[in-house]
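Researcher: Predict the fold of Glucose/arabinose dehydrogenase, beta-propeller fold.
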Amino acid sequence: MIKYLGGALVIGGVLTSILSSEDKATVHPPMLPASNPGYRLQEKAELNYRNYCGGCHGEKMDAFVDRQWKHGNTKEDLFKAIKNGYANEGMPAFDSTFTDKEIRELSDYILKGIKNVDRYGAGKKPVSNIFKTEELTIRLDTVAKGLDIPWGMAFLPGDELLVTDRNGKFYKVKKDQSLQPISGAPEVLAKGQGGLMDVVPDPAFASNKFIYLSYSKFKTEEGKVLATTAILKARLEGNELKDQQDIFVAKPWSRTQLHYGSRMQFGKDGYLYISVGERGNEKQNPQEIKGNDLGKIHRIKSDGSIPSDNPFVKTEGAEASIFTYGNRNPQGMTIHPQTGAIWENEHGPRGGDEINIIQPGKNYGWPIATYGINYNGKIISNISEKEGITAPLHYWIPSIGPSGMAFVTGSRYKGWEGNLLTGSLRFEYLNRSVLKNNKVVKEEILFKNIGRLRDVRMAPDGFIYIAVESPGIVYKLVPVN
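Model: Structure tokens for Glucose/arabinose dehydrogenase, beta-propeller fold follow.
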């Protein structure tokens, strides 16, 4: 009987699958204090959900409710579905399993999760470039437009801005906001989630002029197009790339066109950290360190060679560039301004997007442990935490589709100092996380519905820049007062 209630709580059986969290905070419905009369009711409903529904739909109700509801999602709709079922759709009635009171309590509990999802997506597009936030009033000044999907940004000496477009074009943004094309960028497979992605300058760019580009490298074998994540190193002379050389090419190659990862960050150790997604094959790639670069964070020298203290250098058969494994699709990476630690964010499935602090040799769990469920509503793993697995510092339910990541430094943004900013692709906003002892203690939704927010960077001039998609625009955040 228990296994069927999970089917009952589909509330109408057939749900609309979500294609990808990219194509779409932890913010959970608050538990009431024990002194509150509603505490025991919510506690009981949560326990009933976990015991009767979690086996089919995952332990986190917030992930389960992140769906389209075929038969409605009002309290009356939920009550009817749980009590009477939809026999023709394989969902039995449970009027003999729960009392009406218990069904109402369970419906109320589910409604809390639905409201939590709705708070991200509701609302209209902004009509002004002035936004009042909890701490500041911010004006969004346009820095560049005419782009499609600006994936990565990098600042050069003299406040010059480089921008990649996922369609394969590479630009230098001029002071008059015009886009100056840069020739010599690699040929990319601009399909699915692939294309020209991140860009970072060499720490010694002022003297050596080197930059690094991540992209979807491709080839054809036996009439099939295969692609992978690659890193190109090149020298930037004026508006031309020269001396191009791939210094990292992930293997194995794949026919899929998603989950490339592709964020890069130079650490204080002078080494280049690279994220590579698991390319949609979670059963084989992220947990395999031998002959497999996918679903990992890698650490290499600027010429592509391997640091001698990488964690798997002495592991027979392992890929020596691997720094961490068990990662799903990391699309944000930055360095903590005080500690020098590398932080990253990565897409979960339906629920369970993560923020992690990268530590050498650690397993970040995908798909053994996850707070999310599959896009079709099925369980990926009934384990969210496990010994030997590094738990995320923070996770989002529902999935916000995180991309881009930066710590707020300097003194321009009063009240935001030390906060962590993350772009949301799915809900089209900038997420502000307030941190205390490496824990997210508060979050704020900024610039709601501004557009799929792909990248966020702190510039050398102390301003924050964000890049949004379709139409592709780069904005500078200017405090008004």
